[in-house]
Write a structure and sequence with these properties.
191 residues, 15% strand, single chain, two-stranded parallel ribbon, 5 strands, 8 helices, 3-stranded parallel beta sheet, alpha/beta
């Protein structure tokens, strides 16, 4: 909520000035969920989408918005919560290096992925996700939702599934529902 309050406070003021910038911090976790990181990953995905949307809306009005997508960073939280044996394999960056890279890229597009290794991981994972049956990163979460609902006994083949969607999640759910014997109704917004 804090990010929404800050952006809604500062964006109109920057637009009124005719120039300025906002830097939003996200994480590579927002591109792929992992066990025990669902809420964190979802919040970072939200920040990335919000920042890219604000960039699109505000750039022609003189306001630059950039989303800094950081990988592992040597913060106190990282040091405390990442097992020592895994810390080096995560290729963590120093916080100052993340900041320097993000600020150097301000004004050159909506998203910066800091760190050469992080950019490489992003490209490789993107190519792997493109091999999903529907070609989207939404295929795995959609399959997981349906499988978990089946495991709980909430749904059975022949049931009608209803989902509000505006994109790839709906496409993935429709594909998986058809493969598993469900009828699917997708609700889309007018806009």
């Amino acid at each position: 909520r804090g990010l929404l309050l800050l952006t809604s406070y500062y964006a109109p003021r920057l637009v009124a000035r005719g120039h300025g910038g906002m830097l939003l911090m996200s994480s590579m976790s927002g591109w792929q969920g992992a066990a025990l990181m669902g809420v964190y990953a979802a919040s970072k995905a939200f920040i990335t989408v919000l920042g890219e949307s604000l960039w699109s809306e505000l750039r022609l009005r003189g306001v630059d918005v950039e989303v800094c997508v950081a990988g592992a960073t040597l913060t106190p939280n990282f040091k405390q919560n990442t097992p020592a044996a895994k810390q080096q394999g995560a290729f963590p960056m120093e916080p100052a290096a993340v900041v320097d890279e993000a600020l150097a890229r301000l004004g050159r597009g909506p998203t910066v992925i800091t760190g050469r290794m992080n950019r490489l991981v992003h490209v490789v994972l993107g190519k792997l996700e493109g091999d999903n049956p529907g070609g989207s990163v939404k295929d795995r979460p959609a399959l997981s939702m349906i499988l978990r609902a089946e495991e709980r006994g909430d749904i059975r083949p022949g049931d009608r599934l209803i989902e509000a969607t505006s994109g790839n999640t709906g496409i993935a759910l429709a594909m998986i529902a058809a493969m598993r014997g469900y009828r699917m109704t997708l609700i889309m917004p007018d806009n």
